[in-house]
Amino acid sequence: MRPITLIQFLIEERRAGHINAELSLLIEVVARACKRIAVAVNKGALGGVLGNAGTDNVQGEAQKKLDVISNEILLEANAWGGHLAACASEEMEDPQPIPDMYPKGHHLLLFDPLDGSSNIDVNVSVGTIFSVLRCPDEVAEPKAEHFLQPGTTQLAAGYVVYGPSTVLVLTFGHGSHEFTLDREVGSFVLSRRDIRIPEQTAEFAINMSNQRHWQAPMQRYIGELLAGKDGPRGKDFNMRWVASMVADVHRIMTRGGVFYYPLDAKILAKGGAGKLRLMYEANPMAFIVEQAGGAASTGRERIMALQPTALHQRVPVFLGSKQEVELATHYHREADGAQG
Ligand SMILES: O=P(O)(O)OC[C@H]1O[C@](O)(COP(=O)(O)O)[C@@H](O)[C@@H]1O
Ligand SMILES: [Mg+2]
Ligand SMILES: [Mg+2]
């Protein structure tokens, strides 16, 4: 069978009525930008792209050179196509409008230009995460408030992993599909259509160094997994933590599993509500995972049902194999009920 390129796939999706021409162009532009990011990431020490940029982003985190480079590549690529009304990024406090000299489109694009930045300098997989919303028709100059739409309204979401191979996973709400970059041809090629995450798993991902800070239901849930065959679950669980959400989610999209970044006492003490960002990490990943038959929750509510209140809002994230997410969520709700 002849390989199906991303462009051919987008034509199919247009014919099926899942997307319009403008959204198709948007995805092509983002995919092209991610190919450029892949090239920059691959240069490593030889390209002078490793290390800190010497600046902080809006969230007070030290920016890596590649955070800044990836952000610029995405902004530049998306400025002129006529498919966007504005962009928002982890690396910028406010949304960036499309410059007046360029035609404007009807979409809002949010991205985490480089996810897993702490892994760049040690040559471990990093990635890009993105989410696409519709710009309200009456809005000529989109501001942060116009991006504050629940995840259920996303028109598209995707991530790219810059790993041993460069892989794009994409959804328009009709399944989640994987494309692998063929470097010789320069195209993303469909490698898995309609990915399914098994409902059960014996593998979980969590940063165990935060264990002492977790709330009681998380202690109970992970305690039961760690007890393995001898505990109430009656089976052994394996643990993995890459510390790049894209890589951890991609493992789940490939062989199942579950990912947790819960709320904990350390986060609460700093006045926070979670570690991961709702608009450009949690929502797009939740859309992709749900479209693959998985579940995504904050531990209390479905992530995509949340009404966002701020562009850089943080939330707890539980996502992956449905039965595990549901059990962990059940423990949290039960504990909340017992308290209330
Ligand atoms: O270092 P920790 O606390 O384990 O957190 C790791 C998490 O933080 C993140 O790196 C946040 O993403 P950024 O690198 O885009 O800030 C996730 O990718 C990852 O899951
Ligand atoms: Mg990130
Ligand atoms: Mg990032």
From TrEMBL:
Boundaries of every Fructose-1-6-bisphosphatase class 1 C-terminal domain copy: 197-332
Any one GO MF annotation of this record: fructose 1,6-bisphosphate 1-phosphatase activity
Biochemical pathway: Carbohydrate biosynthesis
Fructose-1-6-bisphosphatase class I N-terminal domain boundaries: 4-191
Database matches in Pfam families: FBPase, FBPase_C
Gene3D superfamilies, alphabetized: 3.40.190.80, Fructose-1,6-Bisphosphatase, subunit A, domain 1 (3.30.540.10)
Coiled coil: none
Alphabetical list of NCBIfam families matching this protein: PRK09293.1-3, PRK09293.1-4
Name this polypeptide is given: fructose-bisphosphatase
Species this protein is from: Dorcoceras hygrometricum
Taxonomic lineage from the root: Eukaryota, Viridiplantae, Streptophyta, Embryophyta, Tracheophyta
